[in-house]
Amino acid sequence: MSWQAYVDDHLMCDIDGQHLTAAAIVGHDGSVWAQSDSFPQFKPEEINGIMNDFNEPGYLAPTGLYLGGTKYMVIQGEPGAVIRGKKGSGGITIKKTGQALIFGIYDEPLTPGQCNMIVERLGDYLIEQGM
């Protein structure tokens, strides 16, 4: 299966008539493996900050998480595995695998829990596959 198919078929899937606003699979080096059309253009330093937070949990808490110039307040996550952010009625979930970062961005009426489930389920599957 192509990386784009993982984004299109798994991350952007329909849940009760709703879906993520944007999604992507990005290598640890910031290279885009696949993304939805709506995924924001991000800066390399934003990915570096995210990687730093995975390596040093809490790194982004004082400044917030930035992606495509949008600031998210960092909320609960799983140190070294999942970062979650909130902005207004939406937010972001990022799951780290051995080689990639899985991004899901959502807005209401999709819930944070639904976004977490979509992103983390694919991330767990890719980890099982050695990715």
TrEMBL record:
Name by which UniProt lists this protein: Profilin
Similarity comment: Belongs to the profilin family.
Listed GO MF terms: actin monomer binding
Role, per record: Binds to actin and affects the structure of the cytoskeleton. At high concentrations, profilin prevents the polymerization of actin, whereas it enhances it at low concentrations.
Alphabetical UniProt keywords: Actin-binding, Cytoplasm, Cytoskeleton
Annotated InterPro entries: PFN, PFN_euk, PFN_sf, Profilin_CS
Primary gene name: Cin c 1
Annotated localization: Cytoplasm, Cytoskeleton
Organism: Cinnamomum camphora (Camphor tree)
